[in-house]
Design a protein that fits this description.
mainly alpha, about 0% strand, 25 helices, globular
């Protein structure tokens, strides 16, 4: 079953070797409820959802340090704010640090505090080092594992994401709460490191334990996408839709994967229908930056196929306008630029580029480094493309192509950038770039067999005059 109702009190956490410092059983139980919803990507309606569960947890014990740790970490995992632009959030981080100093908490809890504080400063790599240190001594600390998993995803540290789960799996009894979710997390790490057969097996094991495991569904959808099994992917997503759509925190993204199969097949009418009814609709309802990014990416893929999407982009651009100075994740920033350019707002695009340059000059952390390495140039390449300067676009970004991974996201998500380079090369009047297009399409054909999208790219290639 997805929904748990028997939440763990203080003594139960201690019995499992993961003690927490609070005298409130209610705070302890709500901590379990918050963690379960966060790991399971769902909202428990009986508790009023994850946000209400957080409020109940904090109300039960205002000084519950680990409660503030999970509250702040979940806020950071939303990728929608940082301490530099959100002073209220900075105060919550400072409050967490302050109460941690005043209490006799465990060394493990102190490490959690330090790790979340580093995350808030944009230092995800350093935060992960601390969570991994926690897991060496307490391998069943799901909070450390999940926080590290999310940060590794943001860093595109795929091997670390895979191995972090693999290391602790032998220490988990199958009877422990949340055990099944480990398999879905492991499956995603396996998939992102191209171990597709192993990933499929692990994801299916997770779904046998809990058919409502949205992350395991997500991992399996990645497998089918990356191996070119689009018909199988469509069948899987459609036949299990009622199982995974209840996971409200990842349902929109899973619908995005569902829609990718339609785009791949060239079924743009079906893709648009899914976009209107689920992907775009859910994105605008939640205004989650992750989901808005999904929508912009989805529309751009269709746009590359020659389908006009400018009018549809406006709603998502309006949400992005409130986040242009956040610079939480490089992957997001590039999509913000894509939205500005997609609605022909050259002024916002210029201002955003200036904001990125200022962030590179004065900022710190992993996102700053990624934007300095490749993010700004990718934004400049998109700008050149929209200005019909296709040769310039290729010259700007192709030499940095293998650095794009530093921006974060998954292999499937970053494929929009590969498509961008191919389309820019196809449209360039430089014969060298046209030959490059041929090579990139051939490369894509080798990586993903039987791809109708690749076949359409070949058709465009052979209609190009040399």
């Amino acid at each position: 079953m997805m929904m748990r109702t028997n939440w763990r009190g203080c003594q139960e956490w201690a019995n499992e070797g993961v003690p927490i410092t609070t005298t409130s059983n209610e705070a302890s139980k709500m901590y379990d409820a918050v963690l379960s919803q966060y790991v399971g990507w769902y909202e428990d309606s009986s508790l009023g959802g994850i946000e209400n569960s957080i409020n109940k947890m904090v109300d039960a014990d205002q000084d519950f340090v680990l409660g503030h740790v999970v509250k702040n970490g979940i806020k950071l995992s939303g990728l929608s704010t940082n301490m530099e632009v959100n002073l209220e959030f900075r105060e919550t981080i400072n409050y967490m640090l302050d109460i941690a100093k005043k209490q006799a908490i465990s060394d493990r809890e102190k490490k959690h505090v330090s790790a979340v504080a580093l995350w808030a400063e944009g230092k995800l790599t350093q935060a992960c080092e601390i969570w991994e240190d926690i897991l060496i001594e307490t391998p069943t600390d799901m909070l450390a594992l999940k926080f590290a998993h999310d940060c590794y995803f943001c860093l595109s540290s795929h091997q670390q994401m895979r191995d972090s789960v693999a290391r602790v799996l032998p220490f988990w009894k199958t009877s422990l709460p949340l055990y099944g979710y480990l398999l879905g997390m492991h499956a995603f790490g396996l998939e992102e490191t191209h171990l597709y057969n192993e990933a499929e097996k692990q994801a299916k094991k997770a779904l046998e334990i809990n058919k409502h495991d949205g992350w395991a569904t997500h991992a399996l959808s990645h497998v089918y996408e990356m191996t070119g099994q689009h018909v199988k992917g469509l069948d899987f997503m459609s036949s299990t839709e009622n199982d995974w759509k209840v996971c409200g925190l990842t349902a929109c993204h899973n619908y995005w994967h569902y829609g990718l199969y339609h785009i791949e097949q060239g079924n743009f009418e079906d893709a648009f229908r899914l976009f209107e009814n689920e992907i775009g609709k859910r994105s605008l309802q939640s205004k989650s930056t992750m989901e808005i990014v999904n929508s912009v990416s989805f529309l751009y893929r269709i746009r590359f196929e020659g389908v006009p999407v400018k009018e549809k982009l406006y709603d998502f651009y309006e949400v992005f306008k409130n986040h242009l100075d956040d610079h939480v994740l490089g992957f997001n920033d590039v999509h913000y630029m894509m939205a500005c350019l997609g609605v022909d707002d050259a002024k916002s695009a210029r201002n955003f580029k200036d904001s990125i340059k200022e962030f590179i000059r004065c900022g710190k952390g992993d996102t700053r480094d990624a934007m300095n390495t490749v993010g700004l140039e990718l934004c400049e390449a998109f700008t050149a493309y929209e200005n019909q300067q296709f040769s310039d676009a290729v010259n700007i970004i192709y030499p940095k192509r293998y650095q794009i991974v530093k921006l974060g996201g998954s292999n499937a998500q970053r494929d929009v950038f590969n498509l961008f380079i191919i389309h820019a090369s196809l449209k360039s009047d430089d014969k060298k770039h046209q030959n490059l297009a041929r090579m990139l399409i051939s490369e894509r054909d080798c990586l993903k067999a039987n791809s109708p999208l690749t076949s359409r790219l070949k058709a465009k290639l052979y209609n190009t005059s040399y």
